[in-house]
Design a protein that fits this description.
Blueprint: H1 10-28, H2 35-62, H3 66-85, H4 88-93, H5 99-103, H6 107-120, E1 124-128, E2 135-139, E3 145-150, H7 166-170, E4 175-180, H8 187-196, E5 199-202, H9 204-211, H10 216-223
Parallel strand pairs: 3-4, 4-5
Antiparallel strand pairs: 1-2, 2-3
Helix pairs in contact: 2-3
């Protein structure tokens, strides 16, 4: 029996709804690229693959089997190295940490992380371990020296071991105290550090920027 003219075909109605949904998603930028948008990239990729294959064939005919073997092994080696460098453990050993990783560290782990970040910035670091209050001594190739303490206040604590006084006699202008705290320093700590002159405070936001790759010299210049 023929369908009345005033009724709509279910298939056609479903297609119309689908077109409306696709139109809305594209207007919102949530549908993804069209084929014509990605066609240039696919063309370039196909041309690159064809050129690589042609180069391997020519190399095989000219030199021998060495060229295709190297052509296959070299990209595989580069890919393997790139993947290994992106692993969290390898990234942290190079002195790069995420803010969440810094939060999860205990005080000893934080000292190790700061030591790695200093080495990343070309400092030679010596870690002075302590059960609850580790300390770092660092020297830059240009002669600057850095004493790093980990505490929530600017002033040294009563039972805190201070740097050896011999370090101050070398060149006082090249010596700097860096106090690291994952939280926020109080206003009185900031005022004390400014009066003291050779103490720089590194709070949580600055520490996160340093851990993500910002050079220490840039951060120190902004704090002083």
């Amino acid at each position: 029996m023929a369908r009345p003219s005033w009724t709509s075909d279910p298939v056609e109605e479903q297609r119309r709804r689908k077109r409306d949904v696709v139109r809305r998603l594209r207007a919102q930028g949530r549908y993804g690229p069209r084929f014509r948008d990605v066609l240039p990239s696919f063309t370039v990729l196909a041309a690159a693959v064809c050129a690589a294959v042609a180069g391997l064939v020519v190399g095989f005919r000219t030199v021998g089997v060495v060229v295709p073997v190297v052509g296959v092994l070299l990209p595989a080696l580069v890919l393997t190295v790139a993947l290994r460098r992106r692993r969290p453990g390898a990234r942290r050993r190079r002195g790069h940490y995420t803010p969440q990783e810094l939060v999860e560290l205990d005080i000893q782990g934080l000292a190790l992380a700061v030591a790695r970040m200093l080495r990343r910035d070309q400092w030679k670091v010596r870690l002075l371990p302590a059960p609850d209050r580790p300390r770092l001594c660092a020297r830059h190739p240009d002669g600057r020296r850095l004493d790093v303490a980990f505490r929530p206040v600017a002033e040294p604590l009563p039972d805190e071991a201070l740097p050896h006084p011999r370090a101050h006699r070398e060149d006082p202008d090249s010596f700097l105290h860096l106090v690291v705290h994952r939280g926020t320093f109080r206003a009185r700590d900031v005022r004390w550090a400014r009066r003291e002159g050779r103490t720089v405070l590194m709070d949580g936001p600055a520490l996160n920027r340093w851990a993500e790759g910002a050079p220490l010299d840039t951060l120190l210049a902004g704090e002083r």
